[in-house]
């Protein structure tokens, strides 16, 4: 009937608009039951359940054998880790697989059989589930004693396929690989040529005492190539060149040329190419997202124009304002956008909307999210008005920054004076009194700002929330200190009481005071720009963090399976070479010194020793030489490709923010929130009417009247 058709058109319009908001494809079933299932599948509850399942299956690696449930990672001190019995993690895994099977079944049904064969991600999803279930059955048949579990390496795929932005990012990376391969090939040529030069320069001589460079780094082709590759990462710099330089200073020219050409030119050239190419491909991806949004809005217009209450027109279609208001009441979207669109509709003098007017209404989705701060309270008292003016003025905030700086300087002075004193000789009176004075000032400053700005306006600023939270924590800690140890006085050195000693409490308070000094960032324009750029990257580029998790997870699981039992434990006298014994002795010595001295002073030395021994383990027969492929692949993906991708996006985000900041009037009461799509909004092209209608007519499940 007419009423049933109208309800169907309304529901279709609701779903199409929600698809446009989330940049989803509209190529799915549009009958009544499928629309209900579609909205249920993309509801917060269902998506939260799916995300929880992905988190659980990824977290299983922490409790599966070898378990990571130990306090320390040092094999000399940690107790035997708890390993779950066979069948426990497998049962949890099976429940996760059942959720994934339901997920892929719903997705496959909603898009239809024809679209299913075009969707490679869904086919890969099913293949991953089949391989994982097969491996799960094999694992149970061996009573969980097998070492190789393929399904563990495949787990990150479940995270990857659940994010459309991660798929687009991966597609952009894949499209950038040919250009990156040219520079990587140039790096390989660079390494090969200098390897040949090194083997000729540092060849073996009759005098064994002068062959330290040959023995240590350039004995054969694989060792020479590995030494220069590690030098390209600067991990063995300057160790690799010290023997040759000790013999003849002229050898330094070789290493200088290699480092300058490799690190300064080729690596930075790779960064430039990645920035240029990846930015272009990401722009294409964002352009396709814009097309999906426009297509979803246009599809909603077309189905709403089919309502029986809308007058037919041979030349042009229209949508009634009442029908759109009815749809907006049921659409799940940001309240700001919904209120803006509803306000525009009520202000509209016409009862019918054309396609252009309909599309223009939903351009509100593309605008910056603007946060307006609440107004300050209006006081009638002349005295309160003066207080409001004085303590709400920016200069009062600058005074607070000066006081915070004075607090930091005073803490530094006391710490420098007490640096060489024994705990029994240290007098905590001065530091305690200083902290007490400044915390009282911070509390007074916070209360005066609340009076001047009002509580709602005060809390609407992130810097005030940060400042106020730390002030409250400092006040609570100070009260707790006084309650346990009494008020500060000369010779204030009470014995340990409660959970923390007095010195621990004072140190905790001082660390929070130092952390509180970050409040100066909003008052420094350039520093604030840098910090907001980094925060935007954290908030909006979750897809890149997700892919990074996928890479880390896959390499970690692969490393566990490849190198299980490969490295000789420390102290094992069955090592196969004198140098390896010496290497073990060096690590044990560093670990011993690390316990006796402070960690910071020995951290760099400890890293160098471990890297040295790891490289030696790779070069002898304890670990297969083919294992170098694993580490080189890790270096290429994590350090070369991924770091450069992050640098490219950091540059793009920073340049975009800098350009907008230079052309935007500073408004203290307005905050702009940007997304990845909005970052490229100024250079995107709007799709034409013909492109939208052509795509709509190709919809596999939607039959348009015109």
Structure description:
- It is found in: Late endosome membrane; Lysosome membrane.
- InterPro entries: Ion_trans_dom, TPC2, Volt_channel_dom_sf.
- Its main location: membrane.
- Keywords: Calcium, Calcium channel, Calcium transport, Endosome, Glycoprotein, Ion channel, Ion transport, Lysosome, Membrane, Repeat, Transmembrane, Transmembrane helix, Transport, Voltage-gated channel.
- It is a single chain.
- The chain is mainly alpha-helical and 706 residues long.
- It has four domains: 120 residues; 223 residues, Helix Hairpins (Orthogonal Bundle), CATH 1.10.287.70; 142 residues, Four Helix Bundle (Hemerythrin (Met), subunit A); 119 residues, no CATH class.
- The chain is built from 28 helices and four strands.
- The strands form two sheets. The chain has a two-stranded antiparallel ribbon with strand order 1-2.
- It is globular and about 100 Å long.
Explain the layout of strands and helices.
Blueprint: H1 2-21, H2 32-41, H3 44-59, H4 88-116, H5 120-141, H6 150-154, H7 156-161, H8 164-201, H9 212-216, H10 221-232, H11 242-247, H12 252-304, E1 319-320, H13 321-330, H14 335-347, E2 352-353, H15 355-361, E3 369-372, H16 382-391, H17 394-417, H18 429-453, H19 455-459, H20 462-485, H21 502-516, H22 525-540, H23 542-562, H24 578-596, H25 599-619, H26 627-663, E4 670-673, H27 676-679, H28 689-697
Antiparallel strand pairs: 1-2, 3-4
Helix pairs in contact: 1-2, 1-12, 1-13, 3-4, 4-5, 8-10, 8-12, 8-23, 12-26, 12-28, 16-18, 17-18, 17-21, 18-20, 20-21, 22-26, 23-26, 24-25
């Amino acid at each position: 009937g007419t009423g049933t058709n109208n309800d169907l058109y309304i529901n279709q319009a609701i779903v199409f608009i929600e698809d446009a908001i989330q940049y989803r494809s509209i190529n799915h079933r549009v009958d009544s039951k499928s629309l209900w299932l579609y909205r249920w599948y993309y509801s917060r509850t269902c998506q939260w359940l799916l995300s929880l399942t992905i988190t659980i299956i990824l977290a299983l690696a922490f409790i599966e054998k070898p378990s990571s449930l130990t306090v320390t990672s040092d094999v000399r001190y940690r107790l035997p880790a708890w390993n779950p019995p066979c069948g426990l993690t497998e049962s949890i895994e099976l429940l996760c697989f059942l959720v994934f099977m339901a997920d892929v079944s719903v997705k496959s049904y909603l898009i239809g059989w024809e679209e299913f064969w075009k969707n490679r991600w869904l086919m890969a999803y099913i293949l991953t589930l089949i391989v994982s279930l097969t491996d799960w059955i094999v694992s149970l048949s061996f009573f969980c004693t097998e070492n190789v579990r393929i399904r563990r390496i495949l787990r990150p795929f479940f995270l990857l396929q659940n994010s459309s932005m991660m798929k687009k990012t991966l597609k952009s990376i894949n499209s950038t690989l040919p250009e990156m391969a040219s520079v990587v090939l140039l790096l390989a040529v660079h390494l090969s040529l200098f390897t040949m030069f090194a083997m000729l320069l540092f060849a073996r001589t009759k005098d064994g005492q002068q062959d330290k460079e040959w023995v240590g780094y350039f004995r054969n082709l694989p060792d020479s190539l590995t030494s220069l590759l590690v030098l390209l990462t600067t991990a063995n710099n300057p160790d690799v060149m010290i023997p040759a330089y000790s013999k003849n200073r002229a050898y330094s020219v070789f290493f200088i040329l290699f480092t300058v050409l490799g690190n300064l030119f080729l690596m930075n050239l790779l960064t430039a190419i990645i920035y240029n190419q990846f930015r272009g491909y990401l722009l294409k991806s964002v352009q396709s997202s814009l097309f999906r949004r426009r297509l979803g809005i246009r599809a909603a217009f077309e189905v709403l124009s089919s309502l029986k209450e809308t007058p037919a027109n041979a030349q042009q279609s229209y949508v009634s304002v009442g029908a759109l208001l009815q749809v907006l009441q049921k659409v799940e979207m940001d309240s700001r956008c919904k209120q803006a669109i509803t306000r525009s509709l009520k202000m509209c003098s016409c009862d019918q909307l054309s396609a252009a007017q309909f599309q223009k209404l939903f351009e509100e989705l593309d605008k910056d999210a603007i946060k307006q701060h609440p107004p300050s309270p209006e006081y009638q008292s002349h005295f309160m008005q003066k207080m409001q003016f004085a303590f709400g003025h920016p200069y009062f905030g600058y005074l607070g920054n000066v006081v915070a700086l004075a607090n930091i300087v005073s803490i530094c002075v006391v710490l420098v004076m007490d640096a060489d004193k024994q705990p029994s000789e240290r007098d905590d009176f001065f530091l305690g009194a200083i902290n007490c004075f400044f915390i009282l000032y911070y509390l007074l400053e916070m209360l005066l700002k609340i009076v001047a700005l009002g509580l709602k306006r005060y809390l609407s600023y992130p810097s005030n929330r940060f400042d106020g939270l730390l002030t409250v924590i400092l006040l609570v800690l100070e009260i707790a200190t006084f309650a346990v140890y009494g008020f500060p006085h000369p010779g204030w050195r009470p014995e340990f009481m409660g959970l923390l000693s007095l010195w621990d409490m004072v140190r905790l308070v001082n660390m929070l005071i130092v952390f509180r000094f970050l409040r100066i960032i909003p008052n420094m324009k350039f520093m604030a720009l840098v910090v907001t750029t980094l925060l935007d990257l954290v908030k909006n580029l979750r897809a890149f963090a997700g892919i990074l998790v996928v890479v880390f997870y896959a390499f970690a699981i692969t490393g566990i399976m490849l190198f299980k039992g490969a490295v000789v434990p420390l102290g094992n006298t069955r090592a196969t070479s004198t140098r390896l014994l010496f290497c073990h002795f060096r690590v044990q010595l560093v670990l011993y010194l690390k316990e006796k001295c402070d960690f910071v002073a020995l951290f760099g030395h400890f890293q160098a020793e471990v890297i040295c021994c790891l490289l030696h383990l790779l070069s002898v027969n304890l670990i297969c030489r083919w294992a170098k492929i694993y580490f080189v692949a890790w270096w290429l993906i994590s350090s070369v490709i991924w770091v450069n991708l992050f640098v490219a996006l950091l540059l793009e985000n920073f340049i975009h923010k800098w350009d907008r900041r230079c052309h935007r009037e500073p408004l203290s009461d307005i905050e702009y929130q940007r997304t990845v799509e909005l970052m490229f909004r100024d250079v995107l092209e709007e799709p034409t009417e013909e492109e939208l209608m052509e795509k709509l007519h190709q919809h596999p499940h939607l039959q348009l009247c015109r």
